[in-house]
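Dear all,

This email documents one entry for the complex benchmark we are building for the journal club exercise. For each entry we list the sequence lines for every component of the assembly. Then comes the predicted three-dimensional structure of the complex as a token string, followed by one or two observations. Please use this as the template for your own entries, and keep the labels exactly as they appear.
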Amino acid sequence: MRAIVYDGHLHYVGAYPDPKATSGWARIRVLKAGICTTDIEIIRGYKGFKGVLGHEFVGVVDCHCPKGGDPDWTGKRVVGEINVGCGVCEYCAHGLQRHCPQRKALGILDLDGCMADYCVLPVSNLHLIPASMPDNIAVFVEPLSAALEILEQVELTGFERAVVLGDGRLGILCAWTLLTALSDVTLIGHHREKLEKARWRGVKTQLEFPAGMEGNVDIVVEAAGSTRGLGDAVALCRPRGTVVLKSTVASEISVDLSPVVVNELTLVGSRCGRFETGLRMLESYPDMPIERLISAEYPIEEASAAFEMAVQPDTLKVLIDIAEKG
Amino acid sequence: MRAIVYDGHLHYVGAYPDPKATSGWARIRVLKAGICTTDIEIIRGYKGFKGVLGHEFVGVVDCHCPKGGDPDWTGKRVVGEINVGCGVCEYCAHGLQRHCPQRKALGILDLDGCMADYCVLPVSNLHLIPASMPDNIAVFVEPLSAALEILEQVELTGFERAVVLGDGRLGILCAWTLLTALSDVTLIGHHREKLEKARWRGVKTQLEFPAGMEGNVDIVVEAAGSTRGLGDAVALCRPRGTVVLKSTVASEISVDLSPVVVNELTLVGSRCGRFETGLRMLESYPDMPIERLISAEYPIEEASAAFEMAVQPDTLKVLIDIAEKG
């Protein structure tokens, strides 16, 4: 099959071995995949992963090895949760496969990813896509669910004002999801064009660090991925407020955490979310301008060009088109 | 009056001006005061405070300027909350004077402290001490309440295993308070003698960083005040667990926060607590060996010797005896 592979270098490979679905797993013919910051970190060598890249996708189940009384998923259009847990530990028992110490993760950890003609996942990871939802929206279920994880982790009762730092893909999705729960949401970034695309319903945008907002924000989401993001977030947050850490900064950062203690802030690390909530939000807010976030789309053969585009500062989402032609 | 004053240097002053109680405030004749890490930070110049030091005390109300229908507190033995809010802002309205943006704080911010014959505080900050409670225990209400703040901030349901990093005064009090809520509490420190004093009921102690505990602890309290404390705490904490930041490290620290995001940890900054809970705990656990934490006691005139003793690595609490003799 065709695949985008990282083995120390990024390659398009025309004849990578097809994956096999074992008992309880399905093989998915991938239609579209998205490039995420994690993929970019991998090709910069930060994660130690080697194999087929990619974990954001929409596809059609190609074959399914049913276990027990599983219904047959063959032919269904699906998205898939990316973490595969051991199935028996305490985390897996609570639906937290993403924290299983033995987990694999699609295109990230011990499991080939979705930037290929086929990938495999357990059937329990799959979610059916409504027929009315275009592929170009369905491929956003993974990052949108990651943004929605904030609403699952943080009790927002009594909160009014939110600030999101960072006008990248994830920052914009975080601002949109917060707006479904809070009335006053401001996205702060450095790119005029991205900020324009972020304006949906009442989301406010700002090019500069806001004067007079310091110490007045109930919840600040750090999605800038810069080394100074955390310090800025702490400065904006009111006493007893919450700072959500949504981006992993690959290097050590130097930070003065004494305001966290003095102001009794809560810092919440936040990663993947449940796909049910992402799918529900896409259905509840059909006016959410998700497709605005697509900066470009490349055929799988043009892997290098796609990744070069993805790292440009003005780029939002880059999609990989994997559907076979003709 | 006699006072311990910081004006760029630490002094004992034999004739400092007596403070005056204004409407709604009381003047307290101080019996005992405790030296806290914050006092040590002040004499190292970190806080910018100048004036009479000290915020941990027990004393007797000397005179009271009642406002409206206040009962007369004169002659009562009391401890006092250290933060004085504006009384009208949103934080003050919720009993969170300690987060009022206009607050003063006894011996820390714009208000002379308690290491003197007299200090003044609003009557609403005072708490009556039961007759049966010795001065040497009552003076611990402030730091014990700070430790108990953890139980107010963190929902411990479902938590079993706690680790406290740091065998200083606050670390030991945190371990004792956690033991009232959880069955498995380990204090980790570097001083054999302090760790011995920390053993109360089931509290376990350890001299070394524990092998095999990484990623397995539900709640880790960082009370070591060292620059590597946070990194250690994050490494010990299980996915979705909680790290409490109890010590302010005066300098910037360099830390890799990506495990906080990947493991979706919650970091909670924690400072002062409510005195009601500290007093209640002292009454509920009369066997709690608080007096073990007193390393030495000095008359107010020997301020320099007292502070020199307080900064020794093996010292726990140093008290200042202020009761007038004869």
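Observations: The domain at 144-269 of chain A is CATH 3.40.50.720 (Rossmann fold). The first strand of chain A starts at residue 3 and ends at 6.
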